[in-house]
């Protein structure tokens, strides 16, 4: 009985929204400049980065981009020379924006569809941690209608309502073996939604520097009626009631940011951003199963996350009126305390560098390319619930492309 109760603590999707799943791939120009954009008014991606800057855009925009994400992680179990690697799968965070307003108006309307959270990893069903995780496919898509108003030539504000549409597909092994040698499996799939808001202020100073301040609220995402599917030996089927569903609520954290734009010349733009992410709202993960059994009870797993911060810097240099080069980098602290690191998000403090280029075709069409490399510090951990113990090493590679039409 105790073993089955522990099993279902493990079946909770342990760290679905860790810092490692805050991808923030919300605009190609901004990625190329180290993810800076709070204090800049560059293009339609300001809908996400700073709604207050949207009214300062000199043109209207329709644009979109995609950033295929290659997540490479290795796990070396404690006391072993065996190293396990996640399988090669590609997540596809995307962004799309539209911004419109009359040329002489002091306001603009916008809408953004972007993916600030998500993850895709597959460790397979033969590695040491298969009872903690086999695979995870997670998507959180934000849809944000926005309005921005220019209050003066030097000051604008803006805000938008956020609707989040999320989906999750998580698979884990169950430590039960049938007469034919097949290992049990649990699969939790579901869709959910949540609501929030994003607001910002944008200021042009007398010394030529621009400043942005933004706040994106916490988005509480609720999954109701998700499918809980169990493949177990027939003799234990009664302990795993089916069909079965689950419900859960997961907070996507609030984020407060400040950014600065500097313009040493007409060709060079420099940017610096800093933000704090309110992960301390993630105290525990609770799951409510529609049908319980003596060995299948609702779960409550503590997480005790801490707030995380990041510092980012970037630059853009216009080689010609049509061609621009970009570069940047930053540091992000982990939100996951010792004892709570899992294969869903083998998170650690991370450093990253980015680069990019942009080219204008005529006067209305932009093509932007970006690339990001992230390195997560090596981290030895023993999970307090699963007791999975070992060292994670992770690198992330993210190319990207975007197209923007403006008028």
TrEMBL record:
The keyword Transmembrane applies. One of its GO terms (cellular component) is cell outer membrane. It comes from the Bacteria. InterPro entries: OMPP1/FadL/TodX. Keywords: Cell outer membrane, Membrane, Signal, Transmembrane, Transmembrane beta strand. This is Outer membrane protein transport protein. It is a multi-pass membrane protein. It comes from Mucilaginibacter glaciei. Residues 1-18 form the signal peptide. One of its GO terms (molecular function) is long-chain fatty acid transporting porin activity. Belongs to the OmpP1/FadL family. It is found in: Cell outer membrane. The keyword Cell inner membrane does not apply. SUPFAM superfamilies: Porins.
